[in-house]
Structures are given as structure tokens and as C-alpha cells.
Amino acid sequence: LLMEVKSCLPTVVESKFGKRNRSYQFFTLIRHPILRYISEFHHVSNIGNWRFQYTCNDKIHYLNKTGCASRGVTLKDFMSCSESWSANRQTIMLADVDKAGCLIPAVMSSTERDSILLETAKRNLKEMIYFGVTLHIP
């Protein structure tokens, strides 16, 4: 997640190179959303379950991908999975998830959360030195 990188990068760099005034510039490449989604489906259907952890508001959260994200899952089941970030992955990775209740469903409605995710992701893209769109990542 971009917000994790932004929060931990200064500490890591300072521990290796010493403390001084630094400015960090970020860039990203965004994949075609349908091709990225299909790629994630192929990954999950071939590899199986995986667990993802992320830090939000200094607390570690876990996203367990089970059932609909298990090896051999059909595309229909993968697409209907309500716990999956797949349909909105690039927005989530670019957004400030702390402002969206750390993605915990009980904190706010999905409509409110999605709106916050989209607005913060767009703002973060605007603040980047560069971002591009790519059709193929080998």
C-alpha cells in the first residue's frame, strides 16, 4: 500500500543513510484494469489461498483470502467474492486506507468507503512525479 511506503520509507532510509532533510518523490505504473483482474484470477486459481497483511493506523490488519480465492476457483466464484480486493485493487493500493476506516467493513458503508478510496487515490496520483498506464507487464 502506498500509505505504508510513505510512512515507513523515511525511517528505513534514515537508519541506513543517516538523518537529514529529504524529499521523497513517487511514481507508479497502472495496469489495464481488466487485464490486471484476469491476471490476479489466474494467480489465485493456480496458487490458491494466500494471506495479506497491511498496516493501518499503526496496527497490523489481516485479509484472509479463502473460499472464493482458493486454488481451482472458477471465474464466476472469483468475481462474486465479496471479501476480495481484486475488483478495486489498484485504487486500494494507491489510496489512504486509514481515511477509509482501514477497510474494516463495520466502520462505514461500502459507498462511503469507496468514495474515500477513490478520492484519496486520485489525490495521491496527482501528487506523484509521474504515473503511466501500461498494457503488458511480463
Low-confidence stretches: none
Total count of strands: 4
**Gyration radius from CA atoms, angstroms:** 17 Å
Overall body shape:
globular
What this model shows, in words?
The protein is an alpha+beta fold and 138 residues long. It is 43% helix and 17% strand. It is built from five helices and four strands. The protein has a two-stranded parallel ribbon with strand order 1-4.
Q: Short description, anyone?
A:
By secondary structure, the protein is of the alpha+beta class. Helices cover 43% and strands 17% of the residues.
Question: Main traits of this protein?
Answer:
single chain, about 140 residues, alpha+beta, two-stranded parallel ribbon, two-stranded antiparallel sheet, 5 helices, 4 strands
SSE blueprint and pairings:
Blueprint: H1 2-17, E1 27-31, H2 33-47, E2 50-56, E3 59-65, H3 75-79, H4 89-94, H5 110-127, E4 130-134
Parallel strand pairs: 1-4
Antiparallel strand pairs: 2-3
